[in-house]
Amino acid sequence: MRALPLAFCPLLGGVGGIVGGALAGGNNDQRGGGGGISYDLLPDETQFPGPWEKYIKAPEDKTRIEPARVWRTSGNVTVSATTTSGGKPGTAVVSVGQGGEVTWEFAENIAGRVCWELEGVRGSTAAAKGVNVSFGYSESSWFAGREPDATGDRIARDLPLVVEVGWWEGFSQRVLGGMNDDDDDGVNGNGDKKKKEKKEKPWVSVGKIWVNCTAFPSQKNGRAYSGYFYSSSEMLNRVWYAGAWTLQLSTIDPKEGGALIDYNRAVDGNQSPTGSWYSNFTISDGTAVTTDGAKRDRMVWPGDMFLAIPGIAISTYDLAAVRNALDVLYDFQYPDGSLPYAGPPMGYHGEFSDTYHMHTLLGTYWYVLYSGDLDWLRARWDSYLRALSVSTGKVDEYDLLHVSSTADWLRPGMTGHNGEATAILHTVLSKSLTLDSWLGRASPAATTAAWTALQSRLATGLARLYCPASGLYSDNIGRRSCSGSESCTPQDGNSWALISGIDLAPSQYPFDSPKSQNRSGVPLPSGPPTAKNISDNLRSRWTRHGAPAVEFPNVISPFASGFELLAHLAAGQTSHAVELALIEWGYLLEGDGFTNSTLAEGFRIDGDVQYPAYWSTARNSHAHGWSSGPTTALTSGVLGIELTEPAGRMWKVKPDLTEFLAWARGGFTTSFGRFEVLVWRIRCVGTGTGTGTGTGTGWAVEVRVPEGTSGVVQMGVDQEEKVTGGQEQQLFYILDVGGDYTQADDGLPERNKMTRKEKEEKEDWYKSIVIDLGGGKELVFDDKWEAKAVEEREVGVVDWAVMERHFKTEPPAGWSIESLKNKNNKDKGAK
Question: 641, 670, 628: which is closest to 308 by C-alpha?
């Protein structure tokens, strides 16, 4: 039987670089008011056109993403020659029979509604009637097949989506993938039983298959980036844009969230079978919201915000989606001021985490910094202060934050007087002082003075955790202390110690013991800790595939490593941050089983795609916003762009090419306009005497900032110049002779006439720039410089016994179907 093709777009969920996608988008909403933002502020076209756009993974046409190819077939499947319709690959006619299986590859992680065009169907009506068609989706090629990958953790793989195929005008309504036969006796026109006979098995032909991308619903054109990054490192370019694409895929319609049905059950009472999945739980107000991951959990998790919000701001500026995420957390604030561990379906049963509670406060800072939305901050300020009091009230006589919850980012050992939580609180207090200043000193002077005094106490408390033998801080003052039975010097806690800017040496004399109130009369043998030493000691632990999260054995966590990136930047060791990005995030793109386009939640220390938080390897999320740290770190570290007042009214630029880059450029847009930095290596050529103050090699910086802003450009040692935005050209350079910086008489970098021989957007733009020093001398691109190679390291070794100890396969207490039934019955009885 053959007829005109029909197209179908069934509603499906999930994310897949191999077969499938997520749910639908929505309309843009608007927000008015002074300092507010709206979806209408998002650009329809890229703000920085140039050759770097080739790294953007978002589709040219959001409504139609076609597969790159038929990746694999098995059983009764035939594939015709590729059709010429549209001239695109992946448009071959595929015919699938009983037991057949076909897998389409999209060549990158995607999200949306899966649609296909039915070319025809053959086989007897009775044979096709009641046939089941199974749909499977996978982000990783490792799990492409009849079974999907996994969203839950109670069985190894999710159940496939099974659709019963009926007949409608001769066409199967839903067809894709493997099929199971169900013979049935036919009926003739008189209603009499026909003689049973052998029937022709059903075959279905699919002509075209595509995905209507429904992620980032606030962007009609997903390629209309508001920021960019471009450097001499192909890998770093890919990493930056992989982070941006991960954040786009993790931004969804709020009505299509909640992929964990065990957690949804606590609210909606669903009776879905173990292993089933869907994404139709409402997780916030608005029409777009940023979540933890594209496949799962599709929930608002505040722990991601410190890394994700700046990445969103400098790539797409989709800050309304961020605001909606923050709003739902504040809306679910508990009576005592505590904020929920995560957004709905959590927040109904008192779920709480000390660290994630504070991450909501840090997310508040990032949102206001990049958006300039002070009206929103004023409306939330009382809630913010109540939440802050919850954390400050947990600092006791040891001058450390004594956590009341073991919940964190699934890492074990979050107990007692915790170093990570203490350093995060110090950071929150710094940001709180800044927010208060933006509001015109809204808090009483006594309150802000108390915050500053508490920061000094926290520095004293953190000193209790310092381990001279390792040159790092321990996890707590108990069993995970320097000499405890489970001694641990965590990646997250030490990273936060540097990020926080806390005083690392409040005294040269250590405490007699972590719990003692007395200090030793003998100074630390190697002196007090320094930021550089802690940064170096963290680097010394790296393995071939990245930085181990020793607080969570067997794990390499891009989340904790994202904090380590920022820690190295805080210590002034940008080279360490760039090297780690090349190692760990390079592997996240090129390692076996990863997507080559988005950034996974985590992986095993030996490089395996399994994330040891879960026993099922298939459950790893391959598009997780908390892994996007390099997108922020490369912009703030290499380009050195840092906003210091809302929306960039004040800023500073301190670029650093490190030992790995010959040139870099990039920028982003806020409501003030475009911020852009170009930095490249230079050398002096010519035979004249010239007017320049130096010879040899160095680097040059061009800064472009919008009118209405002002800031400083910092280069070299103690070199700083104030800059007013809106000027046509802001050029600075510095030359290095024998390791010493040569300066102008006033101690500032020199400013000279710059000419461009060709259009600046050309791929080798840095070669076209010449700086005239006068007298026959010029500064040109240093094409003789060579980048440092990344150091080779050993592969990490898995401790299998320890890894299995941390697996969790059951839902949390109180979340099972049976326990919820009992709770509901008790509630009814109470009424």
Answer: 628
Q: Dihedral sign for Cα 326, 331, 337, 341, please.
A: negative
Helices 817-830 and 261-268: angle between axes, nearest 10 degrees:
10
**Strands (DSSP E) along 638-768, which ranges?**
641-643, 650-653, 663-670, 673-685, 697-704, 710-714, 720-724, 730-737, 740-742, 753-756
Torsion sign over Cα 285, 291, 297, 301: negative
Contact 595, 622 (CB under 8 A): yes
Nearest CA to 317 among 222, 411, 383, 389?
222
Helix axes 319-331, 374-392, angle to 10 degrees: 40
On whether the CB atoms of residues 112 and 215 are closer than 8 A, the answer is yes
pLDDT in tens, 277-306: 888 999 999 999 999 999 999 999 999 999
Across 470-526, the runs of DSSP E, i.e. the strands, are 472-473
- Distance (Å, rounded) from C-alpha 405 to C-alpha 420? 13
CB count in 10 Å sphere of residue 167: 14
Dig out the tokens for 705 from the structure.
Answer: 């900032």
State whether residue 47 is helix, strand or coil: coil
Most confident range (mean pLDDT) of 18-27, 92-101, 779-788 is 779-788
Within a 13 Å sphere around the CA of 730, how many CA atoms are in the beta-carbon half? 22
Query: What mean pLDDT do residues 622-648 have?
Result: 98
* pLDDT band with cut points at 50, 70 and 90 for residue 420: very high
For helices 374-392 and 354-371, the axis angle rounded to 10 degrees is 160
CA distance 439 to 431: 12
Q: How far apart are CA 510 and CA 495, in angstroms?
A: 21
Report whether 303 contacts 562 (CB < 8 A): no
- Tell me: the pLDDT tens digits for 489-510? 999 999 999 999 999 999 989 9
Higher pLDDT, 43 or 665: 665
Q: For all residues of the chain together, what is the average pLDDT? A: 85
How far apart (Å, rounded) are the C-alpha atoms in residues 562 and 534? Answer: 16
Residue pLDDT, tens place only, 333-373: 999 999 999 999 999 999 999 999 999 999 999 999 999 99
- For residues 230, 233, 238, 244, the Cα torsion angle rounded to the nearest 10 degrees is -40
Q: Which residues pair with 395 in a beta bridge?
A: 401
Token couple for 140: 């990783």
Flag whether pLDDT at 20 surpasses 50.
no
Q: What is the pLDDT of residues 141-170, one digit of tens each?
A: 999 988 899 998 889 999 998 766 544 333
Domain assignments of the chain as residue spans, ordered by start: 1-186+198-245+253-387+799-831, 393-529, 639-781
Count of positions (residues) in the chain = 831
Distances (CA, A) of 374 to 368, 445, 641: 7, 20, 22
- Burial group, residue 29, by CB count within 10 angstroms (0-12, 13-18, 19+): middle
Residue of 214, 310, 315 lying closest to 257 (CA atoms):
214
Who contacts 747 (Cβ-Cβ below 8 Å, separation ≥6)? Answer: 718, 719
C-beta separation of 148 from 14 below 8 A: yes
Residues 6+ apart with CB under 8 A from 708: 649, 672, 673, 725, 726
Confidence class for position 693, pLDDT limits 50, 70, 90 = very low
